[in-house]
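Reviewers of the previous submission asked for a worked example of the structure-prediction workflow described in the proposal, so we include one complete record here. The input consisted solely of the amino acid sequence. No template or homolog information was supplied to the procedure at any stage.
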Amino acid sequence: MKPWDGIISEDEQRAYRAAGFGRPSGLGQRPALLIIDVQYRTVGTKPMPFWDSIKEFPTSCGDVGWNAVGNIKKLVDLFRARKWPILYPHVAPKVAHEGGRLAEKVPQIMNIAAHGYNFVEEIAPQPGDILVPKKHPSAFFATALASHLIDLSVDTLIVTGCTTSGCVRGSVVDGFSLNFRVSVPMECVYDRSRVSHAVNLFDMSEKYADVLPLDELLKKLDGLSPRQS
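From that input alone, the workflow returned the following structure tokens.
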């Protein structure tokens, strides 16, 4: 069962099929893993239900974030073993004059404690990984991400992190627009809204990315060759 089953009607899904949407793109030969915004501010410092977690960080997604962390760890382990690149697009700490329009929509983002911007320890960057600080939803907007990917000869993006409806979606659309193959393992992204999570996964699956179970993606990746140094 897919996350959007029971939310997107069967008739609507058939409408996309009839129009020819939803065909898989597959993987290339040179993947990179993007871990977007997996910081304590989006999951809390320990697993807690949503309503408890937001008492610590109002921007936390709670348990669903920690569930994703455990799944992302499987990809991290594979990518490190294969010497494939891992990049961490992340929200940089904001100061008063940098809030922009998002601060008007979500004032709480301007009051995150400093430790909320730390990467979750279980999947934190290691030497050799690439950090991509960003100020906006897409990991590509006004960052050096595309330059890093070109330099690494990447042809495929595995996109993980949060939120499904925000920074993940924005990054997927921009990656697709730049002609990268994009895959989204459905257990490795998260959102505070189940409905928004499901609808955006469906829309990305139909138009911009291969949205598939993590186990299926791991098998596909396992068939690729390790990166040569």
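The mean pLDDT is 94. We consider this example representative of the routine output the project will generate in years two and three.
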